[in-house]
Amino acid sequence: MSDIPSLSMDFDQTSCSERDSGFDEAPLESIVDEEDFLEEFSEFSVCESLPTDFSNLIQKPIITVTVRPNTTAFSLDETVSPQKKKLCQRSVAEEESFISRRKNLLRKSRTVEYGNAVVPSGNVTFLSSENEIKTAIQRSYSEPDLIADFTRSYSLPSNISRHQDLRAIDTTTLNRLLNGELRVPSFKVIDCRYPYEYEGGHIAGALNIYTHDQCSALLEEAGKPDILIFHCEFSAERGPNLYRHLRQEDRKKNVYRYPALCFPEIYILEGGYRKFFEENSVLCCPSAYTKMLDPKFSNEMEFFRQISRTWDSDVKNCCKKTVRSRSVRKFVL
User: Fold this and answer.
1) Which of 59, 97, 104, 117 is 20 to 30 Å from the Cα of 225, by its Cα?
2) Helices 171-178, 272-279: crossing angle, 10 deg rounding
3) Distance (Å, rounded) from C-alpha 144 to C-alpha 245?
4) Going by DSSP bridges, is the β-strand pair 227-231/265-269 parallel, antiparallel, or unpaired?
5) pTM (global) more than 0.90
6) Residue 74: left (phi > 0), alpha (psi -120 to 50), or beta?
């Protein structure tokens, strides 16, 4: 019993009665001693139906809790850093001044950011007012057949495409364009297939581009054609992917000239090279068609797929089963 801490007990004899305490009235003199008190208290049996907290109150050892005056459950000095403590102790005026300084710093940082932005150089015509931008956008709503910079109508007849966000032409239109039946200032066909497909047969005069970096490089070339025509094997994924990428990079490059673009008129060839070769093989060079899933080029396909980092949904048009991905083997170009 010597391990039990000392108790400071100060009973008010007038306020403690049999009715208030629930215990039998006992002379205080008989239980003032600690041993007598615990012995007296141990005679009470704990009901099994009592709550756990109440049972612990009866059975557990009695301990003393020393509470220092003018303190809380935790000390601010021990748990909060000096910087946070100083922040919490700021007055209303200091808080308003702090917020004002933060806003000024944010405003200055944005001004510096815009001032350091690279503005396109050269003979560039900037839109001088917001009204001109609004006029161009309003014209696009009233004349839906305008090219992407809203300056004129499309030069080639469009065709219904599986990609609703892309302008498409069919193989007949491209045939007429190659044969000179349709007059346009200049155009370029972009073949987005892999090099072994391109070398195995492509549209005469087509340029082989199959990565995003190669596509972005078109924006920096001089003597840009007026019209670009993208295609891949089926024009299902690779061609549309690079089409969208070029338009996105074109908007970024000309952000200060909106809605001006380097390539405002772009098309996707509906049906891709497969359909064009079936109908116009004489316009292909060489007059052949190498499929992407040709077993002879399985290693090359894996290699170029890793380089281009594009998922080829053309696979789904070739076969119903998914082609299992394999580790890239060492390939020497």
Assistant:
1) 117
2) 60
3) 22
4) parallel
5) no
6) beta
Largest CA distance in the chain: 122
Which are the contacts of 291, defined by CB distance < 8 A and separation ≥ 6?
Answer: 197, 233, 318
Each residue's pLDDT expressed in tens, for the chain with a length of 333 residues: 445 444 444 444 444 444 444 445 555 554 455 555 555 555 555 555 666 666 666 666 655 555 555 544 444 444 556 665 565 666 777 777 877 887 777 776 655 544 454 554 555 555 546 777 888 888 888 888 899 999 999 999 998 788 999 999 999 999 999 999 999 999 999 999 999 999 999 999 999 999 999 999 999 998 999 999 999 999 999 999 999 999 999 999 998 888 899 999 999 999 999 999 999 999 999 999 999 999 999 999 999 988 886 544 444 444 443 344 343 333 333
DSSP 51-104: -HHHHHHHHSPP------TT--SS-HHHHS-HHHHHHHT--HHHHHHHHHHHHH
Contacts 24+ apart (CB under 8 A), 295-299: 297/196, 297/197, 299/329, 299/331
Catalytic (active site) residue 232: yes
Measuring CA to CA, which residue among 226, 218, 230 is closest to residue 265?
A: 226
Cα 280 to Cα 118: distance, rounded to the nearest angstrom: 46
- Residue with token string 């340029």: 207
Task: Characterize the bridge pairing of strands 202-203 and 284-285.
Answer: antiparallel
C-beta of residue 238 within 8 angstroms of C-beta of residue 231:
no
